[in-house]
Amino acid sequence: MELVSVNGRITPPGEAAVSPLDRGFLYGDSVYETLRTYGRVPFRLGPHIDRLRRSAWALGIPHERAAVDPGVAVAALLEAADAAESASTGAAGAGKVPAAAPQGHPDRALRIILTRGVGGIGYDPADCGPPTVVVHVRPMPLLPAEWYREGVDVAVVPVTRNAISALDPAIKSSNLLNNYLAWEAGRRLRVFEPILLNPDGLLAEGATSNLFVVRDGRLRTPDLGAGLLAGITRAAVIESARGGGIEVDETNLRPEALRAADEAFLTSTLKGVLPIRRVDGWPVREGRPGRLTRRVMELFAALVQAETKAGGAPGSMRR
């Protein structure tokens, strides 16, 4: 079931509306979060909401003036989606065709957008607001099971990650043209995920993910100072790996560290832990997920299970 909440008003997507004078639409003057559920339980909702507020604070968006609290809006929207799905299932049981049948998988993906609100044409935000809160819920998109078993292809692309001094990637801004241009470059190379370097030529992150490499039995990931988003799943993976006795270094990495890695993988909310099999067309070591990557996947799945009692994480039940 797909629904949208705009300042607490819940409708199907085609009926949702935001003013054309909203700063999020006019200037990309907004921040966002993507989260998912496991067993219908949102995973780390609190950290996602906290990061949304930090991003808003960094842009000077007064999130506390919003018409509805984002966390409250998420809870109300999930409840509405449950009710709508139950109603459609009941209609099907009565011999009617439901408007939107369940997709065979119980979990959902959510996107929260917080904008500065409606204002006039021009950069001065003095008359803007209150902030607009949009939440979109949809069935959780599932990646092919074989991608978790075999890995995906990535490539280092020529599109450079935004400099911290320009638009700090630590701010989860809705202005995603930098990511989109990297994605287009990756599509031309026929890879699943493009990898961006920062202006100093250091590994930063994927267009939609954080990056980890394995070398000599140690897990390494780009330091936040290189200019990347502090991913919620990235933090969960570091936490679970260290808890499982795996050494993790947050450090500056050159692209050669990825190309010469023993193993490598991506992390994100919707991907979980996703192994990398090839970089720039060349296999990562044996071209299949390695022992440490598989262990990290197991540890992350255990952490998800402990927090949500849902039974697993992406790929954990499909290997």
Give an overview of the whole structure.
It contains 8 helices and 15 strands. The protein is an alpha+beta fold and 319 residues long. The protein has 2 domains: 3-139, D-amino Acid Aminotransferase, Chain A, domain 1 (2-Layer Sandwich), CATH 3.30.470; 145-308, D-amino Acid Aminotransferase, Chain A, domain 2. Strands 7, 8, 9, 10, 11, 12, 13, 14 and 15 form a 9-stranded mixed β-sheet that branches. Strands 2-1-6-5-3-4 form a 6-stranded antiparallel β-sheet. Helix 6 (232-243) packs across helix 8. The radius of gyration is 20 Å and the shape is globular. It starts with a strand and ends in an 11-residue tail after the last helix. The relative contact order is 0.14.
Report the C-alpha radius of gyration, rounded: 20 Å
Note the total helix count.
8
Which fold name corresponds to the CATH topology of the largest domain? Answer: D-amino Acid Aminotransferase, Chain A, domain 2
Q: What fraction, in percent, of the residue positions are helical?
A: 25-40%
From the spread of the alpha carbons, the general shape counts as: globular
* CATH classification, class level of the largest domain: Alpha Beta
Secondary structure category: alpha+beta
The separation of the N and C termini measures 28 Å
- What percentage of the residues does DSSP assign to strands (E)? 25-35%
Which residue ranges are poorly predicted, with pLDDT under 50 across at least 5 consecutive positions? 96-104
Query: Total strand count, please?
Result: 15
